[in-house]
Amino acid sequence: MEEIIRAQGGSSQTSRDAGYAIEILSLFAFYHNESVMEEMFKRAAENQVERNDFPEHALQDSLADGSTVTYQLLKVDDDGMWDPEPFRAGISTLLSFSLIKRDQRARFFSMHVLVHSWAQNRLSDPGRQRRLRIARCLVSKSIVWEFLSDDYTYRRKLLPHVEACQRHTVTSDIDDSEECEQAENYALVLFEAGQWEEARKLRAQVMETRQRVSGQEHPDTLASMTNLASTYGNQGRWQEAEELEVQVMETRQRVLGREHPDTLTIMANLAWTWRSQGSNNKALLLMQTCAELRKQKLGMDHPHTILSVEATEEWVSEI
């Protein structure tokens, strides 16, 4: 089939479109066979420009055959906006061979399960590993830690593709900062979908790796401990959540200072954990302290200050 697609390339442009089609097919093979989004490519392309951190090894993998196909699929203009033309040209080629289908608004694409299986099986072992790394990386880079309605909606739609990437991954080892970021991004999607245990496993691995590589007091290590504590809380594992939050709070107080916003955030989290454990007086005192410090540091109108004040008033009224 690949030879047939390439054979249609009478002109240089048609040949390029065929190359885009084959690359897209190879990436789609590692996602769920339904509801693959153009938005995923757009977000990954624009996020990697904004953060300037798309891992070079992933793009180098795509260049092993001397092509620049992945670069073209993630191409952006001078303003950092994604250029969809290479992606859409490849999609049009795949549609012309009925290898994929699209919905009426051309926002979601699907593949028959047999085509989906063939698209992966046609790859050599090295080629399969290269495309899987790129596919995983692309999904991860499309995720941002922002929490507007559109962000939540996008991550919900991304869930089946995160799950598919996880199923295709042979090893679950997390060894470096790039893999930590990827695991944290995947865990966020799983966490918001209520898959607490799957999120916990990833976050525990991330924490252990960052403690080993970056040290106990590194901001990324403390953030990973906070995320794991949040997962424990959603699982009702309050003692384990408390232990992590106390460690993070004490470290941030020592390293950043008592009034730093990050210190105040973990202080509020710990207060909520104590309240969930039934330690209402201890929780109230800590939340009152947090509210006062936030008034001084952030101002009365800051959303975090308002949340702390409202929690304090509600807890006082219940005593």
List the helices and strands and how they pair.
Blueprint: H1 2-7, H2 12-28, E1 36-37, H3 38-51, H4 56-62, H5 69-73, H6 85-96, E2 101-102, E3 108-110, H7 113-121, H8 125-141, H9 149-168, H10 177-192, H11 196-213, H12 219-234, H13 238-255, H14 261-276, H15 280-298, H16 303-318
Antiparallel strand pairs: 1-3, 2-3
Summarize it.
This protein is mainly alpha-helical. It contains 16 helices and three strands.
Q: Helical region count? A: 16
Which consecutive residue ranges, at least 5 long each, have pLDDT under 50? Answer: 55-67
Total strand segments = 3
Order of helices and strands: HHEHHHHEEHHHHHHHHHH
Order of strands across the biggest sheet? 1-3-2
Query: What is the molecular shape?
Result: elongated
- Give the rounded overall mean pLDDT: 91
Q: How far apart are the first and last residues' alpha carbons, in Å?
A: 72 Å
% residues in beta strands: under 5%
Q: Cα-atom Rg, whole angstroms?
A: 23 Å
Helix/strand/pairing category: mainly alpha
The proportion of residues forming helix, as a percent range, comes to over 70%
Major sheet size, sense and barrel closure: 3 strands, antiparallel
Attribute tags:
single chain; 319 residues; mainly alpha; 3-stranded antiparallel β-sheet; 16 helices; elongated
